[in-house]
């Protein structure tokens, strides 16, 4: 079964948005991420900003891009749940780290933060609703 049909067959909470919403939302968010994370990486590359500030941004990108693989490649809701929480944690860490230096990066990422909070709740709900009962030995 392909990933799209697999996802459509999962049990989801009543408040789950239609699958067609995810593409447009992520398209906007990736523009925000490209501009703001790009600015952070540029500022660290030119030594205008400490490289320590860029660390959570790098981790966030790794976890963000890993989510699709865990959810749709491996079709593993549990790994996807752990990963989306790591996206959330590293995003909060990144926004706090950059705030004193480039506060506009924090502001511009508020929609990303809001979506990741929503996506975390959704993924945790999907994982719970589709858990496999333990088999009696």
Task: Report what the structure shows.
Helices cover 74% and strands 0% of the residues. By secondary structure, the protein is mainly alpha-helical. It has one domain (22-129). The two termini are 29 Å apart.
Please supply descriptive tags for the structure shown above.
137 residues; mainly alpha; 74% helix; 0% strand
Topology:
Layout: H1 3-9, H2 22-45, H3 51-73, H4 77-98, H5 103-108, H6 110-129
Number of domains: 1
Provide the gyration radius in Å.
17 Å
Largest sheet: none
Relative helix content? over 70%
- Runs in which pLDDT lies below 50 for 5 or more consecutive residues are none
| Beta-strand proportion | under 5%
* H/E element order: HHHHHH
> What is the arithmetic mean of pLDDT?
95
Terminal CA distance: 29 Å
- Using the alpha-carbon principal axes, give the shape: elongated
Could you provide a short overview of the structure?
Helix content is 74%, strand content 0%. It is mainly alpha-helical and 137 residues long. The protein has one domain (22-129).
